[in-house]
Amino acid sequence: MPRLVAPIGLFLAFAAVPGLAAEPDPRIDADTGRQKAIWIRPLEWDQVHMRLDLDLADMGTPRFTARQTLRVTPIGEPRSAITLDAVDLDIAEVRHRGGHVPFDYDRRTITVRLPAPVEPGRQIELDFAYSWAGPKDFGGDGLIWTLGKPEGTNRTQQAAQIHTQGQPEANRTWFIGHDFPNDRLTTELHVTAEAPYQAVSNGRLVSVKDAKPASGKPRRTWHWLQDKPHASYLVVLVVGDFAVVDLGGPDSARPGLPMHVYTEHGEEERTRAAFANTPRMVAYFERVFDEPYPWDKYDQLIVRNFAWGGMENTSATVLNRAASFGRNVDGLIAHELGHQWTGDLITCKSWEHLWLNEGWATYAEMLWAEEKAGDDPNARRRAYHRAVIANVRAQRVRNRGSAPGSPPMVSNRYLDPNDTFVKADDVYAKGGLILHMLRARLGDEVFFEGVRTYVDRFKFRSADTDDFRRVFEEVSGQSLALFFEQWAFRPGLPSLEVDLAWDGSAGALSVSVEQTQTIDRLNPPYRFTLPVRVRVGGQDRWGSVDVEDRLARATVRFPDAPGRPTSVQIDPNLTVIARTRVRTPLPEGPD
Fold first, then answer.
1. Do 155 and 179 have their domain in common?
2. Residues 453, 469: contact at Cβ < 8 Å?
3. Are residues 535 and 412 in the same domain?
4. Does residue 414 fall inside a structural domain?
5. Whole-prediction pTM
6. Domain limits at 82?
7. Angle between helices 329-339 and 355-372 (to 10 degrees)
8. Buried b / exposed e along 453-484 (16+ C-beta atoms within 10 A)
9. 100-134: per-residue pLDDT in tens?
10. What distance in Å separates the CA atoms of residue 21 and residue 407, rounded to the nearest whole number?
11. Residue 395: which CATH number?
12. Same structural domain for residues 83 and 214?
């Protein structure tokens, strides 16, 4: 039963603590007293399907006209108005059942007022007519239209180009809808552009038809259909003059799946070599997730002026040209391909839980490094360890936060969703490392059973961290509440100072561990088991320290050891992500 009135003594006790409220709380806006947080957006209407007809009259002029049909159904109760995201569009009219309907538009959102309430379960269609004119700068997001360079060395460079970047909430700048990851819809695009431009979007290509010429130039209409529901931020459009490299076919590692890379003319062979492992990766991730590749094709499109490394749009990944031919192109390909399951097939319910997308894609890089190493267990282990340690190093350097000053990895403490992608508690590195730690804790058999169960249960749905935790508790029989509380919902990492001592007469190794990070009422000591590998008598022996307080100590005994340890390694497999330093090593010399 909740207590509605707290005892007076409780308030007096808090008031008596010196400095308790001396510093402003970074979670609260000092001017308004309002909490700095973004809560998951209400979903009053379910988007069912969008048809978008775009007319690009002249690729040399950044402008298009659009007709959009959005099929929706109300949730919870009859509704007579719908508010949708639409940023800086020139909206001419809205129609419902053939007639005009009134709307209010402040160039951020549009509210459409229907003639009568719509009952839950009933679907209606809204038809929008609008135009878009550029150039527009949304920080590299939204619809990017770049003109061609006459001095370019090939047709691709000389031609104009369009690409879109919807994540996190920028597709609202070129079409109308509920631009938040907690809803899914099917989509189709009809894009009319001059020849020889190609238009690429999500799903399967239904048709390419001749269209009415404009400005004396022949044109074509490309019809793409994504008939499996996905989040609106994953809708993509790319238009350009590309060379197309086919990675599929019956002799590929993944026959039956269309796989193409869109690249610059003249770079076909270089592209084929760089992306050669794509079919093998698809087949591998199908085994990992125990789920067939979920979409109709897998296109990878190398575009210019792309602000990021890659973007996992459903069935059509957009890639940065420099990154596509960099040293770690396999890692980039694995990351974006892994997203087709974790991010696209299953989508984080809100940006607060972004690590379920990005942490998983980062872990896909680690898994691919392990798989690529071949069948030798030692080679696989070394490759996986190298991938893990690269992310550990990144977190050890960057992540030194504590509560309340720093938001944890899973947190709605942001005002701009882009902030969730760039913070010390990195959804990429730390998110991937949490999965590594979970695998180490549960073992491969249980961990991958949890992965398969999670994908099967939440495919074509959105999920949050608690959804993920509950699946792994179910398959493991363990309570993982503390694990996720201190690694996902708490900022920072433990800092450990380790002291070693050897008692030769007893054949005993003493291991003392001190946590030196900030420890206070908001940052209690971490709790974990720290493995220790000891080389003694030419053999590896294992012990552990159960760390529950600021100071912890354990004694590992080797009564039959022929001499002192020759080496002691603290958590060599990095099962606890921490900044660890051996403060007092074993002294050299005899016992």
1. yes
2. no
3. no
4. yes
5. 0.93
6. 45-241
7. 130
8. ebbeebeeebbbbebbbebbbebbeeebeebb
9. 999 999 999 999 999 999 999 999 999 999 999 98
10. 19
11. 1.10.390.10
12. yes
